[in-house]
């Protein structure tokens, strides 16, 4: 077989790399919709109603990516995934992106062939108990039975916490979130553990929400965010910069109501963000008004947060760490320039 010249070989490699580089975005555009992996049902974050209409914080993130690509936030389909199913579904290509209250960890970021595109919600694991259990601290749960979802960092953190505090416990393990919550509500265990945001959401679904309380301890760091497959930098950039655009828009005061008006702003940061100056959208395979489309479709980060899980929602969650860095939090959008 004739040897291939070095320039030709390099060209072939670079050509193949370029083809793989844009595969997911091209595939999404070709089929005409985004397939987004979501929770099977977590109020405030991702849940379908009886008619199959999805709402929630993570759902709006999926819609933001669809808006960035198509200029239409409705061009998305949702695949409900359990914690056990979620990574396999993404690895296999069943979904294009996973936006499902998933914790960024080293092993997930390095050994599963996946890549986290940012942190859209800073969370931490806690415990919920019935008020009549008579405890006010997680340190009083020695010997308790605790409902926990398997295949999650929650299960691992639970073991670490009890081991570190030299306490015994009885794990009551389920694969699906709704099974875990139902078991707790029916009295099969003394406590329920998951991310604190999830506890506040779950409490709303209990038979008697007022009978339950979330204990004060936060036992872990749970940075939650969108996940994509490794090896497709263009797609990674689309998802990552959609997240940053939502944060930058909030910081710059660009909202769903004023985005068209803000296109005439004299602020150079706003002009770059909204595609009036520069070709930043084209650089990642999108139109230059991609951020305008995002904000028109779903609003900025603060608007998404407030309507789904914020203090004016049924969950009544304070921004806390998820406030912008300018407001005492740690959410921070990278500059478009």
UniProtKB/TrEMBL annotation:
Ranges annotated as spanning the membrane: none
GO biological process per UniProt: amino acid transport
Natural source organism: Propylenella binzhouense
Region forming the signal peptide: 1-22
Residues covered by the Solute-binding protein family 3/N-terminal domain: 33-262
Matching Pfam families: SBP_bac_3 (PF00497)
Species classification: Bacteria, Pseudomonadati, Pseudomonadota, Alphaproteobacteria, Hyphomicrobiales
Keywords recorded for this protein, A-Z: Signal, Transport
Xref: SMART domains: PBPb (SM00062)
Protein name per the record: Amino acid ABC transporter substrate-binding protein
Family, as annotated: Belongs to the bacterial solute-binding protein 3 family.
């Amino acid at each position: 077989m004739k040897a291939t010249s070095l320039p030709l070989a390099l060209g072939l490699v670079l050509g193949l790399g370029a083809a793989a580089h844009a595969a997911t975005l091209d595939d999404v555009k070709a089929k005409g919709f985004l397939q987004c992996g979501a929770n099977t049902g977590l109020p405030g974050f991702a849940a379908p109603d009886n008619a199959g209409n999805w709402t929630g914080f993570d759902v709006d993130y999926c819609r933001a990516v669809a808006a960035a690509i198509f200029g239409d936030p409705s061009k998305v389909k949702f695949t409900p995934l359990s914690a056990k199913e979620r990574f396999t579904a993404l690895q296999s290509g069943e979904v294009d992106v996973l936006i499902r209250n998933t914790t960024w960890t080293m092993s997930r970021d390095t050994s599963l062939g996946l890549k986290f595109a940012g942190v859209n919600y800073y969370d931490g694991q806690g415990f919920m108990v019935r008020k009549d259990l008579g405890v006010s601290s997680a340190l009083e749960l020695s010997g308790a039975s605790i409902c926990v979802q398997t295949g999650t960092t929650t299960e691992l953190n639970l073991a670490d916490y009890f081991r570190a505090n030299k306490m015994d416990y009885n794990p009551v393990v389920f694969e699906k979130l709704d099974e875990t919550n139902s078991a707790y509500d029916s009295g099969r265990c003394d406590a329920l553990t998951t991310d604190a945001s999830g506890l506040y959401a779950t409490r709303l679904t209990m038979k008697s929400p007022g009978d339950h309380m979330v204990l004060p301890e936060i036992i872990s760091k749970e940075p939650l965010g969108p996940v994509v497959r490794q090896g497709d930098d263009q797609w990674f950039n689309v998802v990552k910069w959609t997240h940053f655009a939502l944060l930058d828009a909030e910081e710059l005061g660009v909202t769903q109501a004023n985005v068209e008006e803000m296109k005439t702003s004299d602020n150079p940061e706003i002009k770059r963000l909204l595609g009036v100056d520069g070709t930043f959208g084209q650089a990642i395979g999108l139109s230059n008004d991609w951020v305008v489309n995002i904000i028109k479709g779903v609003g900025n980060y603060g608007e998404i947060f407030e309507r789904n899980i914020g203090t004016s929602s049924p969950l009544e969650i304070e921004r806390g760490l998820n406030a912008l860095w300018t407001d005492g939090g740690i959410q921070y959008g990278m500059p478009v320039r």
